[in-house]
Write a structure and sequence with these properties.
The protein is 19% helix and 29% strand. The chain is an alpha+beta fold.
Length: 220
């Protein structure tokens, strides 16, 4: 599990980049959808930031300190659906619908516990970035060109400690920018070519622990 939740105190890893194998080990299952709703104490819900038609749709509002995640595209027996849906014709909730229902329960006072969501961004096949844990605050249906989609509003779970988070800027860098830097550097340190302990830098580089001038005592 990510060590970025506000009440979890573990040494900070040297890198938030993880393999697909580590993601599966953390989550206990090979996640096949962009959104996975889990209402279990030991399993936090998961959002996977994936490109749609080659583009990432996530965004960070620095002024409001809100992160916006695009909902899950639905597939039925007839194939991919143009519009994202909350409920299928059968009456079964989609992943979008499950999260919207939980949000309504929270707003209506029927749910007391926060809606924690772990977010991972896809950098490359089998390579992910651990964006950390957020609380889900709201969700609404919006227009995206010629189709209807859901947009979910989240807040970093460690919002009170953002000022002390040395890696906050890296975390909130868009998936588009991270993927661009990763591709340009070919998954290696931009300066020395090392493949471990990498972090995304605001200057548009990806650097290892040594080239960042940090202690090598951090977790890998």
């Amino acid at each position: 599990m990510s060590n970025l939740l506000g009440d979890v105190y573990e040494p900070v890893r040297a890198s938030s980049i993880i393999s697909g194998g580590e993601l599966i080990e953390r989550e206990g299952v090979d996640l096949q959808k962009g959104m996975t709703f889990r209402d279990l104490e030991d399993r936090i819900s998961v959002f996977l930031v994936l490109p749609h038609e080659g583009e990432f749709k996530d965004r960070w509002d620095a002024r409001r300190k809100r992160y916006y995640f695009r909902g899950h595209d639905s597939v039925t027996a007839d194939g991919p659906q143009k519009d994202q849906v909350a409920m299928y014709e059968s009456g079964r909730l989609s992943e979008n619908g499950k999260f919207l229902k939980a949000i309504d329960a929270k707003k209506g006072g029927l749910r007391r516990s926060p809606l924690y969501v772990q977010v991972y961004e896809k950098l490359d096949p089998g390579v992910w970035f651990d964006k950390g844990i957020f609380t889900l605050e709201n969700g609404q249906r919006i227009s995206d060109g010629d189709r209807k989609v859901f947009e979910f509003e989240l807040v970093p779970a460690d919002i009170a400690r953002i000022a002390d988070d040395a890696h906050h800027e890296e975390r909130m860098m868009s998936a588009t920018e991270k993927a661009r830097i990763w591709e340009k550097a070919r998954g290696r340190c931009s300066r020395c070519g090392t493949q471990s302990g990498l972090r995304f830098m605001p200057e548009g580089e990806i650097l290892c622990v040594s080239c960042r001038g940090e202690s090598i005592g951090l977790l890998g």
